[in-house]
Amino acid sequence: MKNLGLASGGSNSKGWGIRWILDEPYHNHTVNNIQIYNNVISASTTGPTTTIGIILPGIGTATNIYIRNNIIQNWDMAAIYASRDNSAETISGLYVQNNLCYNNAASNALVLNGGSGLVLTNYTNSGNILGSNPLFVSTTDYHIQATSPGINLGYDVDLTMDYDSVAVHATTPDIGAYEYVVPGGGDETAPTVTTTAITAISSTTATSGGNVTDDGGDAVTARGVCWGAGANPTTAGSKTTDGAGTGAFTSSITGLTKNNTYHVRAYATNSIGTSYGADVTFTTPNYLIVVW
Ligand SMILES: [Ca+2]
Questions:
Q1: Ligand 1 mean position to 174 CA, how many Å?
Q2: Dihedral sign computed on CA atoms, order 269, 272, 273, 276
Q3: What is the distance between the terminal CA atoms of the chain, rounded to a whole angstrom?
Q4: Hey, how many other C-beta atoms are within 10 angstroms of the C-beta on 229?
């Protein structure tokens, strides 16, 4: 990598953002598992022409290059560029995901070698946000504002803390170097919960439950399932209460009537709010089991 920071040759460089330079002869090297995550790569909009935010130059044979959660803006040639200047150059596994690219040439899209024959296999390009202003706090402060389009839309790269040591949650990572933090608060979010499939259906009872897979950084104080005749039932209607915290739980649904279709969702609540799992349906049988 080169130019990780502002200074290059004693003055600010406007050539590129992140690139790697291999010692001459720098072709035909083998590199693998390059991870470029959660950077802010911003070119000046004044002064000389700039080039590229992230450039993958002639690198020989590369396997698995990951470019995720970067904010790249203001580059005069391209946001991300992969080139070939040696016939042997291949990339097997290029993952360009959940980057936010704004005000770059080439419509903010990844440029592959200007058309001269890079051998590229296993290419994934997904989740990128192209052309939306990242809404930094200022031109010198790269924290993001409350309405930044990158909030909670990053890729989970197992990052636990941002550049300020603010917690990053697996289900709600922001794009860029900083998590958005509510003024005076933290980065807590509502929990994440899934609904367990319905089993043991009788004419009046059924069994379900859920799994709280992420507490959002704040203790889960209530969880269970809620149900009703309509889609997307809420805790305002019939519900169970089945403990607290993360993990799987089982819920007993009661008070049903025969030959009816019900909707069920798991729920989990913390101080930020209540989240729900998927809406699942089941139908009670048209008979009563009588035991004597
Ligand atoms: Ca977030």
A1: 5
A2: negative
A3: 78
A4: 12
Tell me the mean pLDDT per 10 residues along the chain, length 292. 41 67 58 91 87 79 92 94 69 94 93 69 94 94 93 93 86 90 73 96 95 89 97 97 97 95 97 93 83 72
Indicate if 31 and 148 belong to the same structural domain.
Answer: yes
Choose the final residue of a domain: 187, 216, 236.
187
Using the mean position of ligand 1's atoms as its centre, give its distance from the Cα of residue 236 in Å. Answer: 28
Q: How far is 173 from 186, CA to CA, in rounded Å?
A: 13
Which one-letter amino acid corresponds to residue 160? T
Tokens of residue 1, six digits: 């990598």
Range of the domain at 112: 1-187
Alpha-carbon dihedral sign for residues 21, 123, 162, 177: positive
pLDDT of residue 3: 41
Q: How far is the CA of 152 from the centre of ligand 1 (A)?
A: 4
Report CA(204)–ligand 1 centroid distance (Å). Answer: 42
Q: What integer pLDDT is reported at residue 217 of this predicted model?
A: 77
- Among 187, 219, 253, give the residue marking a domain's end: 187
Task: Indicate whether 41 belongs to any domain.
Answer: yes
User: Total domain count for the chain?
Assistant: 2
